[in-house]
DNA sequence: TTTCAAAATTGTAATCATTACAAATTTGAT
DNA sequence: ATCAAATTTGTAATGATTACAATTTTGAAA
């Protein structure tokens, strides 16, 4: 892993993004930086409630909505059932395995070119997502 | 509109895609070819029940799932709440207005290059989607 | 430090898209 | 005309997300 996060660097990151760094927000943001699995609300909640027993699922929802609004994280709609979240906001694509549901990052260099949002006329663009669907190696081997 | 569809050409299209053309499947497929609004299940159901009063929402769900599986249509997960559907399966991107929820097609020529799915190593890729989020002209004018 | 209003968090109840499932209907080959 | 398989349908269940009101925390001013 290229970067190393501690409580102060994460706190600083949130402040830069105009987010007041509460204990819960720090925990969610840190979780997403340390778990590059594109977790769901359920997964984040289940893991965080061990460290912060009083945390509620509504707070996870509120926090993720705020972090995404402030562009500190990405919300990923690649899965038809649940929204997934990504703590890394640099440009990259995503892949979901239609068999096991796993979501992984796809480096940009494996694509010809990331679409230039600036080139779409007549709209004020906020974000662009590239999603791939298919079957991962692990699932392909099993069948 | 470049293409003109009638019941026979749609029937032929379904057969080509290995889908038995029932009345309901023809109605859903025709609806998607004639309404390029990326409708939801609710919208399709509400419009079709006038022509086919006995049609059920479950059939709409079943049919859309089958059509998407056979790659006769696209299922679009650009909207966090509901899946939307597109009767056109040629390569193009989508844009959703974060204000009014409208989903429109974005021609490929407005992007540098559509990502080449063949270039992603280690996965068997089925589909690739490019989604843009932002604000449409109509909503920008109002604010 | 005390006070107090604004912000944040929490728990519960409601919403609503989607799915499960079993019954009813239709289809198509014999 | 028969009958099994495929399709359609209606209802009930599921489960992610949101609404909302109550509680707690924060942080500035006295």
Q: How would a crystallographer describe the biggest sheet of chain A?
A: 3 strands, mixed
The class by helix and strand makeup of chain A works out as alpha+beta
Q: List low-confidence stretches of chain A.
A: 109-115
**What's the CATH topology label of the largest domain in chain A?**
Arc Repressor Mutant, subunit A
Total individual domains of chain A: 2
* Sheet with most strands: strand arrangement of chain A: 4-3-5
Oligomer: homodimer
SSE succession of chain A: HHHHEEEEEH
* Number of separate helices of chain A: 5
Strand percentage of chain A lies at 15-25%
State the CATH superfamily name of the largest domain in chain A: Winged helix-like DNA-binding domain superfamily/Winged helix DNA-binding domain
Q: Estimate the mean pLDDT confidence of chain A.
A: 88
**CATH class category name of the largest domain in chain A:** Mainly Alpha
Number of strands of chain A: 5
CA-based gyration radius of chain A:
16 Å
Shape of chain A: globular
Q: What is the CATH architecture term of the largest domain in chain A?
A: Orthogonal Bundle
């Amino acid at each position: 892993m290229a970067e190393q996060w501690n409580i102060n660097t994460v706190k600083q990151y949130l402040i830069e993004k105009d987010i007041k760094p509460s204990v819960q927000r720090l925990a969610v943001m840190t979780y997403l930086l340390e778990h590059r699995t594109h977790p769901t609300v359920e997964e984040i909640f289940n893991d965080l409630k061990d460290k912060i027993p009083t945390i509620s699922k509504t707070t996870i929802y509120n926090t993720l909505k705020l972090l995404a609004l402030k562009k500190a994280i990405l919300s990923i709609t690649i899965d038809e059932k649940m929204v997934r979240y990504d703590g890394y906001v640099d440009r990259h694509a995503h892949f979901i395995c239609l068999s096991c549901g796993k979501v992984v990052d796809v480096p940009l260099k494996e694509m010809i070119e990331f679409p230039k949002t600036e080139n779409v006329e007549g709209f004020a663009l906020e974000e662009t997502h590239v999603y791939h669907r298919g079957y991962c190696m692990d699932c392909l081997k099993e069948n």
